[in-house]
Design goal:
With 288 residues, this protein is mainly beta. The chain contains two helices and 26 strands. Strand 20 (212-213) and strand 21 form a beta hairpin.
Length: 288
């Protein structure tokens, strides 16, 4: 049975651009070594936006050395990058962008959603790349709703949507560079959840809403992250009523993490090079 190592909660919200009111659940400046390969997690809890013709979000900015994974729960996100990737993802869809050697991109509310307004809820994860792949070519995966398989849980207690990796033999659509499990878990009623996970892998559970309890007595509720011990293969918890959860699992990289702003590499020299390459336009630029 996996034990809880620690819990994280950040009550403070900040804005990313003018579209994303997020809480930093963790970042590469704090627990990244303990939650490898995940580097950062921002959670935009449900926020209602009024209808607008304006573009709300964050304009052109670079990334190098990792992947950004955006999960939309409510609303719509529109993306464009200098490597040619882009698209709009809506409710229950995922954008998996591999920045790798570098690109610039912009992230805005989708135009249709902006016009009508309404609830917005999103998670953005940064997923590290191993040193050998940090300078590989950028890539983009737009993962639509119907390509994400849903595995029903026993006694009609809910379902697990497999975004990446595997749950009970069912594989998710995301192509990852190292073994990663990313499960969008929707629990409908009080239940006991149990699943096997790989020994030695990072394992963490984020509670978007609801209430979960582990056998060692630890509890977690809205916007709290539970980081479990990598040892052990039995993931088990109980929910008190319905819950919306995200499971993050993966093989840890065990490589140095040196990050600054939008760049995460292995050495300070590589960070300096990233700034030089960005300024000289090597990561691309938009024409407008
Ligand atoms: Mn970005």
């Amino acid at each position: 049975m996996k034990q809880v190592r620690f819990k994280r909660h950040n009550p403070r919200m900040h804005w990313v651009g003018d579209g994303f009111p997020v809480r930093s659940v963790f970042s590469y400046t704090d627990i990244a070594a303990e939650i490898s390969p995940f580097l950062m997690m921002d959670y935009a809890s449900p926020t209602r936006f009024p209808p607008t013709e304006e573009r709300k979000g964050v304009g052109e900015h670079p990334h190098r050395g990792f992947e950004t994974v955006t999960i939309v729960y409510e609303g719509e996100v529109e993306h464009r990058d200098s490597a040619g990737g882009g698209g709009t993802i809506g409710q229950d869809e995922v954008q998996w962008m591999t920045a790798a050697s570098g690109l610039v991109h912009e992230e805005f509310h989708g135009r249709d959603y902006a016009k009508t307004g309404g609830l917005f809820e999103m998670i953005q994860l940064w997923v590290n790349l191993p040193a050998r792949l940090k300078m590989s070519a950028p890539a983009y995966q737009g993962i639509t709703r119907e390509t994400i398989p849903a595995v029903d849980l026993p006694e009609n207690s809910g379902k697990v949507r497999v975004i990446a990796g595997e749950f009970q033999g069912i594989r998710g659509p995301a192509s990852t560079h190292t073994p990663i499990d990313l499960w969008d878990i929707r629990i409908d009623k009080t239940t006991r959840f149990s699943s096997r996970v790989p020994e030695g892998h990072t394992a963490a559970l984020f509670v978007l809403n609801g209430s979960v309890r582990f056998q060692d007595g630890h509890q977690a509720t809205d916007a709290e992250l539970v980081v479990l011990d990598p040892s052990g293969t039995e993931l088990e918890f109980e929910t008190d009523g319905p819950a919306k959860l995200l499971f993050l699992g993966g093989e840890p990289l065990h490589e140095p993490i040196v990050g600054y702003g939008p760049f995460v590499m292995n050495t300070p020299e590589e960070i300096q090079q990233a700034f030089l390459d960005y300024r000289s336009g090597k990561m691309g630029r938009f024409q407008n």
